[in-house]
Amino acid sequence: MSENIRGNIAIEGISIGKIVKVDQSLDEYIAAYVPGGVDEELGRLEQMIDALSAEIDEGVEAMREAGQEEQAEIMEAHSFLLMDPSFTDLANDKTRELSNAPMAVLEAAKETANILAAMDDEYMRERSQDIRDIGNRLARMLLGVKGLEVGDEPVVLCGYEVEPSIIANIPDEKLAGVVMGQGSTTCHAVIIAKSRAIITIVGLADRIDDIPDGATAILDGNEGVVIVDPTPQEQADYEQRIAEQRAQLLRYDALRDLPAEMTDGVCVRLAANIGLPKDAQAAVKYGNQGVGLFRSEFLFMGRDSAPSEELQYDNYKKAIMACNGELCVIRTMDIGGDKPLPYLHIPKEDNPFLGYRAVRISLEREDLFKPQLRAILRAGVYGKVAIMVPMITSVDEIKGVRAVLDKVREELTTEGMDFAKDVQLGIMVETPAAAVMTPVLVKYVDFFSIGTNDLVQYTLAVDRINPQVSTLYDHFHPAVLQLIQRTIKTGRDNGKWVGMCGEMASDPYAAIILMAMGISELSMSAPAIPRVKEKIRSISMAEAKDHLAKVMLLETGAEVREYLKEHIG
Ligand code: PEP
Ligand code: MG
Q1: Which of 298, 329, 428 to mutate to test the pocket of ligand 1 (most atoms within 8 A of CB)?
Q2: Among 196, 277, 303, 355, which residue's beta carbon has the most beta carbons within 10 A?
């Protein structure tokens, strides 16, 4: 009998492989270790730090040569962490204390990791996994424990945590997937897996212990399920699905350079949502047409202070250039809500999603807002850029933003700085207030972009990150559809373009009715682009309009979803 263990989807897809447990304890090896005197242990430690550093550097070079830039960057950061005196000094002190280099290294890594894990900043908390990775790697070298050896059969790496370096050092063809007990989808292990499209399921918690080493496992990353010891029938079914998945990838590849065009010629722009400039470079392989949402707040996170104008300018310039002449929409910082910034010292709020966030902060903190606007305008000379303001609820806010923007333009002119003169200014429509007020707001903007992630949460009064109410969170709820339709119609009637950059844009069924409503741009995480494009290319605008008319008469989100599945296929 097989066993199904449920987790959370981190990277979608299906695969089959042999489980390799990776978080084995080193206790046995430590017990068998024969330490020398203090000086000898310090000497061994120094030698192994140098050896590991050389090994990491060699790996980084190989990754760069293979075009795996994201992985290389993470491993390069490991090299810096390894050499950081706050770690090496502690490891040396502990070695003097314990006269046992591997034990000292594990303790130093644990202490450093605990300090990081207790920090307010999520980014720093997640670095604790990296330092544990380095400690374990170093301890294994000191103990002479061999690294993971992978045979011919593809493996599924499995552990409460899986060290980023282990994933990084196994070639694609031998790595079927990753399964973790911990739940983060933004830790370095997941980022590396994502950069290589390795199917990953996280958040199994202590059920991870129920998966035996060496077992065969199916990873259903579309459902977030690990099937341990599958029956022959299950294995055959999934092998068939894997074959279909391969065929689909080939079809998607062939779509890359084709337009998102309906069978009767109506087109939409399919753009990418990005967090950092490198995401814009990575999006190219999915055939994106520019960037519809650059979440600039990522530049503000994981730091002790706000990024300088120059640092922002460099990043915006990179993203704009990666758009190859297509529009790059940069959203001004959307801090607050689920993205706190410790250095802003915002007091704890009971309802952060209804609190001090996004444009509310920007308008009060010109010391942060002006450098951001200056950086965007200056970077704008390298391509086509637009500024987009999040969380607008009233016309005063966009007027306020315009006033600061005018001031910034004047200052740049006085300083004789080169900057783009034709930058569009738009807002996110992500509050019901903004959607209702679009007939007024439209006078002050060049475009609207509908942010359904927040629009759904605020319209339906459903916290977007609370799993207990997640079944109520539905972008097809008729109230949401009406607000979206109103926004698109208002924009079009006034000659302004309307896009969508919330998750709904990546739903192929939604894409069809949004096009029928008259949307001009759908922006999404880049890997979703081919799936949406394929659906768009399978239908005509006449059919889409017919479906839209019927859908707008339905009474619940469930009815809408059912209708679309049945009629669009
Ligand atoms: C949205 O709210 O739909 C959106 C795109 O913004 P974020 O998910 O960053 O809040
Ligand atoms: Mg939002």
Answers
A1: 428
A2: 277
